[in-house]
Amino acid sequence: MKRPPATTRLGLNLAPMVDVMMCLLIFFMLATKMVERENSRIDLPVAKAAKDAEKQALGSRFVVNIRDAALHGGKGAVYLISEEVVPLADVLQRLETEGQLDPNVNCVIRADRDLPYKYVQAVMIGCARAKIRNITFGAVRVEGRTG
Amino acid sequence: MRRGFPPAHADIPNLAPMVDVVMVILIFFMLGTSFAIPEGILPTRLPSQVGPGGGATVTVIPAVRIALLEQQDGPKAISLDQKGACRIVVMGHELAENSFDALSGYLEAKRLAGADPTGRILIGAEPGVQYQHVISAMDASVRAGFSNILFSVGGGESAEVERADELP
Asked: What is the CATH class of A53-137?
């Protein structure tokens, strides 16, 4: 009597998949920057003459983000410091404190390009009052969103 | 008694748990990565006069004074190519061609005619003017070769970054 053929165990060869996944993993690991987020996603104004932010030594800095309040369900603009929404009075208070701690602190203003200038002006006036002389505007060389 | 050799696949490690973990890590990094355009900066400094009196009014005699005015209805209201147009006034006169390229051209011509590139360029803007236009005016000045750019910040008893006697 003829014996039935021995059953063969079929297994998926996962090696190529692991290779590809490892490549992708390494790519994304290198592309990711695990830094403290102090910059909100903002449509910065376009300026062809803007210098590369990473190559400039800003030293001690204080970043003020100004976004359209419509994104937060309000009107006008909202001020953010380290991703936290704060009222303008608090921003001015923080500027005073920063100015006292380090007069050479660099105030980086990152504002939405479509906002009226008065919201930026308010921070600049705060810098003048806090005796902070270094002001830097965030900008992009080409149209787009940063973050 | 055992006969023959064990099947070849018996020694292959089970990769499934490793694939699971790698998948999770991969998804984490994929979501955590943002391919944003590199950010640039336009540095400026407040005048040294703004010191102990923080916000004191100072009188500045600029080499060039640029004013950005909110657009008003009328024959002089020329639209820019960007939304939220404004009028560009240089030394009290509106530019014939109301664009920031024209402003850059005007400033460059002034510099080539002998103007000091370290001379003060004073930019003033009405509160309702779009922030983009203010930065564009600064950008045009930098592109024209000027480096000393100041801002006037008007407004009641507020402190000032730099103020001209009046906006043109």
From this structure: alpha beta
